[in-house]
Design a protein that fits this description.
CATH class of the largest domain: Alpha Beta
Largest sheet: 8 strands, parallel, barrel
Number of strands: 11
Number of domains: 2
Radius of gyration: 20 Å
Mean pLDDT: 95
Number of helices: 15
CATH topology of the largest domain: TIM Barrel
Distance between the termini: 43 Å
Helix content: 40-55%
CATH architecture of the largest domain: Alpha-Beta Barrel
Low-confidence stretches: none
Strand order of the largest sheet: 3-4-6-7-8-9-10-11
Strand content: 5-15%
Order of helices and strands: EEEHEEHHEHEHHEHEHEHEHHHHHH
């Protein structure tokens, strides 16, 4: 049984990676329904939280069916991180996660996210103070290092464990790589081989198929797998991996009806949570993924990303289902 503090996650949990503008409550609901064991919110700016910024505070929203869930924060100042940890605790998640992995320039330029990989002592000190300031189990998500010359992840894992984190998720790339090249899981595997490491280690990066999930589970002996980009517009990845682990069989892909139903649910919840204008705008990034591989889908997708009318969008969903149900099954 894999546990984060007292939070039980099963024998080999599948985790939804925190993704900005993606892993919000409407999307998380779909992933949970497909078997995701542990989810994280979008990352939240601690400066936004302590200033009561509407967008940051809204990201604290948690619904009962989502649990267990972790709220992820990012920041560079110890005082701000500690104050934000107190705010997060009031939202009552199961876990507080610190983002030390985001590679985006506007984040790292402030020594937040992966930026702090340039100053490991500060990273450790900041983590230690957050651990001390909350009763929640604290976890960390990070990368192998800042660049190929500064991959100190084995040392970082030990030091973060020593100051009290309860689990570590590692993306198998450096900040310099961004999302390019192949994720290097060998470094993640070495951490699992370290007899000093007692906390769960979750691997992240390039898991796109059930076969690869099983291969990496067995090869690198991780305690669980965190899935990010492969789940966007395809929450079924979680059920497919679990089924393959259990039976060795590849599930057939979701039907057109399942894809349309998921898109409709996502759309409806997005409007409900964000309001009509923002809900419609922020759904547009998902349509390509829901209907990826559909032949001649462009005219329908164009309508989806240009319409501001919910009824028109729902009508396009119905047209897609009507046209492609027979085409995609033949």
């Amino acid at each position: 049984m894999v546990k984060i503090g007292d939070v039980e996650l099963g024998e080999f949990p599948l985790l939804l990676a925190p993704m900005e503008d993606v892993s919000d409550p409407p999307f998380r609901a779909l992933c949970k329904a497909q078997g995701c064991d542990m989810m994280y919110t979008e990352f939240i700016s601690v400066e936004g939280l302590i200033r009561d910024a509407t967008k940051s505070v809204q990201k604290l929203d948690i619904y009962p069916e989502e649990r267990p869930i972790g709220i992820q924060i990012f920041g560079a100042e110890i005082d701000s991180m500690m104050r934000a940890a107190e705010i997060v605790e009031e939202a009552k998640p199961e876990v507080l996660d610190i983002n030390f992995g985001c590679p985006v320039k506007k984040v790292v330029s402030k020594m937040c996210g992966a930026g702090i990989l340039q100053d490991i002592p500060r990273m450790v000190k900041l983590t230690e103070q957050v651990v001390k300031s909350t009763n929640l189990p604290v976890t960390v998500k990070t990368r192998l290092g800042w660049d190929e010359k500064t991959q100190f992840i084995e040392e970082v894992a030990e030091r973060l464990q020593d100051v009290g984190i309860k689990a570590l998720s590692i993306h198998g790339r450096t900040r310099k790589q961004m999302y390019k090249g192949e994720a290097d899981w060998t470094r993640i595997g070495k951490i699992k081989e370290n007899p000093r490491i007692k906390i769960p280690i979750f691997g992240n990066g390039d898991i796109k198929t059930p076969q690869k999930a099983k291969e990496y589970r067995e090869r690198y002996n991780v305690d669980g797998i965190m899935i990010g980009r492969a789940s966007i517009g395809y929450p079924w990845i979680f059920r497919e991996i679990k089924h393959y682990f259990k039976t060795g069989e590849i599930l057939p892909p979701p039907t057109v009806a399942e894809r349309v139903a998921a898109a409709k649910q996502h759309f409806a919840h997005s409007i409900e949570w964000k309001g009509q204008t923002l809900g419609i705008l922020e759904m547009r990034r998902h349509y390509t993924n829901y209907f990826r591989g559909f032949p001649h889908i462009k005219p329908y997708r164009t309508k989806l990303v240009t319409s501001h009318n919910p009824e028109e969008i729902l009508d396009v969903f119905n047209q897609i289902e009507e046209r492609y149900s027979e085409v995609m099954s033949s």
